[in-house]
Amino acid sequence: MTMPWRAAPKAALTSPLTLIIAAVTTLLACFLGTAAVLQASAAGGAAVTYQSGMVCPDYYGPVFSKDNVPAAVAPQVVDSVRRNAPAHGFSAPVTSRYTPYLFGTEFNGDPNYKVVLAHRDQATQGHLDVASGSAGAGFLLGTVVAGAENIKVGATPSIKGTPIPPVTGLYRDLPDPAPRWWCSQQRNAVVSRLANDPLDSVMFAHDGKTFDDTVRALGIPTIKTLHMSFYEAPPKTVSEAEDLQERSKALIAAVKADLGSRGLGDAIVGSLPFERSVEISKQAESNVLISILPLAAISILVGCAGIGTVALQWYQRRHPQLRLLSARGSGPGALGLLAVAELGLPIVAGGAAGAVLARLLLGLYGPPGELDDGATFWGSLVAAAILLISLALLAGVISVRTHREFELGRVRSGGRKKVKFLAFFPWELLTAGVALLGWNRLVDYSKGSRIGNPLPQVDPLALTYPVFVVLTVGLVAARLAWLALHASHRARLWSRPALQLAIRRLASARAPVTGVLVIGTLAIGTLATGIGIARGQEEALQTKSAIFVGAETRVDTESVVGTGKVTLPASVSGSTTIVGELTGTGNVVLVVDPRTFRQAATLGPLDGAEVDRLLSGLSGQGAGVPAIRIGHDAAQKTTLPAGLADAEAIGELPMFPIIGTKAGYVISRESLTEAQLRTVPKWSVLSSSSMTQVTEALASVGVVTAVNRVTRESALDALPFYVVSWTFSFMALLGAVLGVVAVLSLLVAVEVRRRQNALAGALVLRMGMRPRALLASHLMELGTLSGLAVVIGVVCGVSVAGLSVPRFDPATFLPPQSALPDPTPLALTVLAVGVLVVALAGWIAMRSVRTARTAELIRA
């Protein structure tokens, strides 16, 4: 009685199709379950990486900083931090010290200079650009002061009559903004030139001893700023960031206790600048996980339903053997274990392969972040749980069926009644209700989109809205197809035998046809929705930043640039334009140079040719000032500020760089007189060059850039856009997986009917039908099925994505509104794949006909 169980793995080879279906079903279920865990963890890692790039590189760990520290206390504070750091896993801190401005500094006999004496560890080791001399014992002086006042290397300055170590080198003053290594020292190490005073400078001591000796010799009572931080490797995962924060807190507590024991508890202040970034990263990981959990649960349930179907197929195929074993005393549990013994190995192999594939392909479908150490373990645990559920479900289905039939003696008609009930139950009404509930939750999503809320709260039910809409449409299409096929026996198209045969084959397999139609529609619709929303948010980030900034770089500058007294340097003149802003009379007026505006500006969704046409019209003459009207509404006036004549609109645009969608006008600089140009309160430089190139170029001609500087890369917080994109990329993955299921279902349906199709095809060929006509018949059958799925899925998915993209906009306060990207490439790709699948399925069907032996088929 043990032989069937021992021989079960070998007996499974008699039905390879069942093995393949069981393995693929668990593969896909475990793939999606594992991918959900990995997707969320990678999202957290990507969020940490993004946040790391937004803060200064020495802000990942603890920061000890305080102003006006007594000079006698500062060494004790530095010593305490350095002694306690190794115990908490930190290297030596980078210490920065700055004195107050020291007036009466004398160079070459002139006592009218003022300098800040400074020292920063490692600054002279490649982080200061030494133009001449060397970073020997002494001080480095900035080239701005040295060049303006003809101060040479070797000069010996004095401060209020007290000589200090000589100038051993000249360094190029740090630009504004400073290089990234100096980011945290921007306030102290960078000299602001807004006052246009070349006599200010920061003198860096080559070493700490030179700085200490000079401070002691000058009798400076306080260090204006004492700053200590750590250049740790940026964390790549949420767990790494959390561990770094915990160690940082411990170090701050240890330093505070150490200084407190000396009566210096308030000598320094410890802070955690990266703590908020870690909280945001954790929230991003949580948002993605919570958002995709319903989708992952749906996919796992679909996989379990597939295992249940495999169990029923196996039961039908092994029914005689099961009846015999039951009659000989085997119980339902033993018969269920027989199914596990026969199908367990392919199920386990498929599940393991799915988990491995989810890890290997993470780079293709997941966010660009590192995984936490435990993510792979939890993903494997989810896959193992799915496998256990699948095996238990397989054994349970067989046990229940054998118990009911062999022990309780129930007839199968009750099962058929239940199948009919399930077939006729209006599932589309249920899914439509869930979709409506999700839509109602989705409407509230954009309310959380506002400044100060980095990650709007996500309602998981709202994320299921697109899936249930597509599923509802698929179920409606399947029901209509079922009814049409039920009535297809009335069709009389024998004048077109290929079409008639295709209809009859479809009608004879209504159940698999409708099943493939539902799965195919759901797959393509989900794929289109996920890709549409994910790419829509990525494009929204680009277009919003383009309109907000107006170019790759925007820098406020002096009026001498706007009035033309100072021309732009040649190094950036080919990639830069000048714009001015006027306000008043209820309008925002942008003053542009039409000849150079397009070479620097980014237009976002605007049509470049139309903008060029309107810009060229600004140089025309008329009764008023030629202007492009922006954001026109009924209350908009034509009155312009600065004593200009009324605006004479030559055209209209819905939005414009910098202005956005506000009511306003765009006019040419040529419309303003020299006196009017001087009244423009704000001038900016727009450029396609980098911020460093622009600021250095302007500084080379003596132009001071104001503090308002912005680039497209840093203008907006991109993380909310990325979170939406990462979330819906999982929906796209779900659609791709369902697409694989749909293709396999179609090919399996063709293979299952191989004998039937082969016999019917061989007979019609003997009756005179040409092979080409038979092939056309199969292509009509399969093409109709896949064509319906493609058309319905693409139309439904694109429509749902078009409605949803604006709702998921995390920055509704910035124009333009998020919009659906061009769906043509996706539609063409899906269509091409559909054509290939139909061709493959048609070839399989015709191959079975060509290789068929009619006599054996009839005899069988």
TrEMBL record:
Subcellular location: Cell membrane
Cellular component GO terms held in the UniProt record: plasma membrane
UniProt KW Transcription regulation keyword: no
PROSITE patterns hit by this protein: PROKAR_LIPOPROTEIN
Positions of transmembrane segments: 288-312, 333-357, 377-400, 421-442, 462-485, 513-534, 719-752, 773-806, 826-846
UniProt domain ABC3 transporter permease C-terminal: residue ranges: 728-851
The UniProt record lists the keyword Metal-binding: no
Domain of life per record: Bacteria
This protein's UniProt keywords: Cell membrane, Membrane, Signal, Transmembrane, Transmembrane helix
Signal sequence region: 1-42
InterPro entries from the UniProt entry: ABC3_permease_C
Topological relation to the membrane, as annotated: Multi-pass membrane protein
The protein, known as: Permease
Lineage: Bacteria, Bacillati, Actinomycetota, Actinomycetes, Pseudonocardiales
